[in-house]
Amino acid sequence: MTTDQIVDEVSGGLSRLAGSYKAVVILIGLQLCVTGVPVLLALVGGESFMPIAVTLVIIRPIVLLLTVLVLPIYTYRVFDALGSKLKVIWAILAIVPILNIIVLGWMSRQASVRCRELGVPVGLFGPKTKTAQLTDR
């Protein structure tokens, strides 16, 4: 393999990792918002925030169904990009609401370690691929 082929393979895997990781973070964030925000609004705001809380409660089943269907796919992709042998198990664990936060934490750790090994900076939503592309050239 030439150096260019290695760089292309690493940057392709990094792009796949970054995109999937961002999707997982957003999906888990959506789950937390539609589950926790209505309760907080009802407790803190009383009746003034009730319309917002009711709206979130109404859309909650749709969002939760969407995340349950899509979250395992992106979790599988992240662990595949990280080269994990247990990617199917991680994807299944990502469906369970509290366990998915633990999976996200483990995923963050693994992705951060891998990216730092490659010299790629990592932000809140995962690897910064634009920075990686600039430093490769």
Runs in which pLDDT lies below 50 for 5 or more consecutive residues are 1-8, 131-137
Overall structural class, as computed from helix and strand content, comes to mainly alpha
Apparent shape: elongated
Fraction of residues in β-strands: under 5%
The main sheet comes to:
2 strands, antiparallel
Order of helices and strands: HHHHEEH
What is the CA-CA span between the terminal residues?
18 Å
**Overall pLDDT level:** 78
Count of individual beta strands: 2
Helix share bin: over 70%
Question: How many individual helices?
Answer: 5
Describe the structure.
- The protein is mostly helical and 137 residues long.
- The chain has one domain (3-124).
- Helix content is 80%, strand content 3%.
- It has helices at 3-45, 50-81, 87-93, 99-118, 129-136; strands at residues 122-123, 126-127.
- It has a two-stranded antiparallel sheet.
- Mean pLDDT is 78; it is low at 1-8 and 131-137.
